[in-house]
Input
Amino acid sequence: MNLAGKKILLGVSGGIAVYKACELLRLLQKKGATVRVCMTDAATEFVAPLTFASLSKCPVYLKNGAVEARPFQHIDFPHWADLYLVVPATANVIGKFACGIADDPVSLCFMSCTCPRVVAPAMNVAMYNSPAVKRNLEILRNFEDTVVLESPAGELACGEVGQGRLMEPAEIVAYLDERRALTTNKFTEPAEVNVAEKGEGLPLAPAAGASSATPSPRGAAPKTPEPPAFPVASDIPPTQDVSLPGHGKKVLLTAGRTEEAIDPVRYISNRSSGKTAVALASVFYANGFEVEVVAGPMEAAFPGGVAVSRVQSAREMHDAVMDRLGTADAVVHCAAVADYRPAHAASEKIKDSRSQLTIELVPNPNILRDCTAARNSAGQSHRQVIVGFALETDHFEQHAKEKLAKSGADALLLNAPVASDSGFGHDCVRYSLVRSDGAVPEMSMGSKVDLAQEIVDFVLEKLG
Ligand SMILES: Cc1cc2nc3c(=O)[nH]c(=O)nc-3n(C[C@H](O)[C@H](O)[C@H](O)COP(=O)(O)O)c2cc1C
Output
């Protein structure tokens, strides 16, 4: 739909993505829309109202604004608008919208507007997956003239990976521009709609004569049972979405680090945070794969929808992986498994005797090699795709080639924790995906989500 001449009220609540609302405002203006802004107090802590006032060339509606000069702003603004966009929508304002609380400009406008409303949530993945937010979003989706935009999965500002990102401003504009419907045909094409109420505005509801079972809760025209035109806000889990390339396929991931006991209180381990494994689990899941993870200790948290079994030592991880191998179409060995463990773990805490102590180390089982051996002995009937990881600090190409040849894997993700801002615990890493049938590509810097996407693409290519 042509946004030219449309009057859009932009409600801004207090999340880290507030700065993206500035970009959205500019993009809407470029399309010819007039934009006014209301903000919560929390939002003003992220971006000053002066920025929005300057961009929109209109005073921003604030809780402690010039009430005497404009006492009915909470009515005037929403009634002026053809469309109310809440970007970003915090967990907090979503809860207020769902429960009918109206104690700040953004929630007040939500309650008092009579135009269509589009809500773009943005928050941390744990908040997004919390039962309260899920329930509140579901309530909003069922409001007659409210659309909840999808929160894409990916890297979040807090450093975690998962669902909860703000839909990109350009995508929001594209959605409005094309005015495609989400889970209902709430925003239908102009020819089908009753525009009498607002004349030039975006339509509230389908034309008279369209069949309906449910009267509108806000006095708008009734819902129609027509199917969705563009189900981006679908509640279908990715694993049930037959259109996704990984549908019907299962990936087994190892994640985190292992801890090898020296005595009941001490262990040998490494610095792996598990962030790469979380990125992999998220991207595989988003591509429709059933994702099973065998995870050692790690700080990063997995998104919902992923089955996680916890282990501690390399031998526990080995046994758990071998038990689960049979049903996997692909196995990605992302865990930082200790190569060695103490030959004997003391049953009591080792006392400080002030004399030199030697700990004898013995090799741990090689999980990657045992997996490829198991696959090879199963023959061609079960052609699993196997990807290993190699963290190297020197002679990258030579070590990667040797490890890949010895392991029998289809590819090796070569990575290096050489820069101060990449590798362990960070969101970026230097890496290259070395295929068994190709040369060693030069390592480049990328996010762990980029790395995960490259592995997922490789696995999909191999699975055909
Ligand atoms: C640095 C920082 C970033 C935050 N980012 C978000 C966010 O992205 N989404 C969210 O729902 N809450 C976020 N919060 C929490 C909200 O700011 C907090 O719940 C606040 O009360 C929301 O107020 P509002 O909904 O009235 O704007 C963040 C808080 C801080 C300190």
Remarks:
- The pocket of flavin mononucleotide is lined by residues 13-17, 40, 42-43, 90-93, 104, 122-123, 127 (CB under 6 Å).
- The domain at 7-192 is CATH 3.40.50.1950 (Rossmann fold).
